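A favour, since you know our structure tokens better than I do. Could you add the entry underneath, on a fresh line?
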Amino acid sequence: MRLTQRPKTLSWHRCSTASNLTKFNERENTIMKHKLAIIMALFAVFAFSANAASAEESKPKVIRIGSAYASGYGKPYGFGNAGVLQARGLLEEEFRKEGIKIEWYLFKGAGPAVNESLANKLLDFVYEGDLPAIVAKAGGLKTKLLAAGSKWANVYIAVPADSKISSIKDLRGKRVGVFKGTNIQLTLDRILEANGLKESDLRIYNLGTADLQNALKTKDVDAAVSGVNLFTLQSQGNSRIIYSTKTAPKDWRTTGAFYVTEDFAKKYPEITKRVVKDYVKASVWASDEANRNGYLQVGVNSGYSRADQSVEIAGRTLKDVNDVTLDSDFLNHLVGAIAISKQKGLIRNTYDLNTWVDRSYLDAALKELNLEHFWK
């Protein structure tokens, strides 16, 4: 009997153990499934957070634009192509839905003030003249030239209305006001050299736009070298313009351009592309003769009368004035300006223009807007 009962007990024990093991395995599988589900959920959360952070990094919270073509009259409006971009509000409209803020910084200190802000990493895009941009690049500020602007603006030399000065050579030994560090200075050097003079032959006074006009009006300087703003004093009977680059080689005139910092372009290439596209759109609008009144109003907002602006651009089309293309004339002008800046001791180091110019953004904008032949 014992022998016959023992196997039954063992058989029952085995069955009970097998059943317990099956239940144990099922329970372990369930726990593992829960653990895997939690891990997958956490992974999804982390992945979403990473993607969200990546998306956030692909767009800046603010785009900061500095312009050296600010009015000398204390008005908060820019001038030239960037002034039109600001006045039209294209960037604000472009980025409003994404919550990206547009900040404009207009510098009465012109190019030198813009470069100081660039050096302190306070700007992302800048609009300034050739000489200050050349000085910035030669000094190690990492920018990329994106598009032209304010092409071939004239430089004028004015004297008090009753002055006996009538020629460039008469300026020898005289007190001459000029905004040093701006593209006006580069043109002055060309003018002087053509007349057998150099800056050291004059008594140079470094004066900003507003101070320059006041000094000429009060006769604290014998002559002033500047842009279209000098027409205001002449129209008031306080001065007389004795020289204009309208009669000089085209290359003597001043040019501006639109730049981006290398850091911003590398971090936000798509945003950079969109900014340049809006810059082109603004320039196209300004190039349309049907918008001449609106274009001149941008200058009026900056403090320049319609009459003075009309004299400045007389004989030119708006398309010529607002051409943003990086054509051979413009690029050759910059090559020459770099060489002259080195020759005159305004910069210590020269560089290859091709390492500075980035055509990709402008070319993309022109192609997308079907404007590849608009300014040609």
The chain is about 50% helix and 15% strand. The chain has a mean pLDDT of 87. The beta strands are 62-67, 101-106, 125-129, 143-153, 156-160, 175-178, 203-206, 223-226, 239-244, 254-261.
